[in-house]
Amino acid sequence: MVSIIESGTVDLLKLALDASAMRQQATARNIANAGTPGYQRLGVSFESRLGELREALQQGRRPAMTAAARPQFETLGLPGDMVALDQEMAALSENTLHHQALLKALSRHMSVLGIAVEGRR
User: Fold this and answer.
1) For residue range 32-64, what is the model confidence (pLDDT) as tens digits?
2) Do residues 75 and 40 touch, judged by C-beta distance below 8 A?
3) Per-residue confidence (pLDDT) for residue 80, from 0 to 100
C-alpha cells in the first residue's frame, strides 16, 4: 500500500538518513580497528550516487530513486594505511550534526504535510 505522505522528498531524506547511519557504523569500525594490522578503512558512498542519479534525470532517464542512490559501504585507501583517530572523531562529530539536520528537515516536512491535511493556516 502506498502512503499518501510518500514523496520524493521523504524518499530522499530516508536515503540520506540511511547513509548517515551507515557512516556512523563505518566510523565506529574504523575507530575500533585503528591498531589492527592490514585493516582497510570503511566509508560510505552516497553523494556520488546522488550525482549520478541527478545526471540520469537530467538526461531524461528515470531510474528508481531508491535503487540508484542507495548508500553502500566502500573501502578507502590501501590495506595497512593507518587510521587517524583525530580525523575519525571529527568525521563522527560532523556526521552527528548532519544526521540531526536531516531529522529536523524530515520533521519540518511532516509538519507541513500535517498542516495541509488538517487545513490549518
Assistant:
1) 999 898 899 999 999 888 888 778 778 887 766
2) yes
3) 78
Helix residue ranges, H only, 1-121: 8-32, 47-58, 65-68, 85-118
Where are the chain's structural domains?
8-118
Return the residue matching grid coordinates 540511511: 18
Reported confidence tier of residue 81, pLDDT bands at 50, 70, 90: confident
Of the candidates 19, 12, 60, the one whose C-alpha atom is nearest the C-alpha of residue 42 is 19
Closest among 13, 24, 22 to 94, alpha carbons compared? 24
CB atoms within 10 A of CB 95: 19
Long-range Cβ pairs for the range 27-36 (8 Å, 24+): 27/88, 27/91, 27/92, 27/95, 28/92, 30/83, 30/88, 31/83, 31/85, 31/88, 31/89, 31/92, 33/83, 34/82, 34/83, 34/85, 34/88
Closest by CA to 17, choosing from 69, 78, 75, 85, is: 69
**pTM score, whole prediction:** 0.78
From the CB of residue 28, how many other CB atoms can be counted at a distance below 10 Å?
Answer: 13
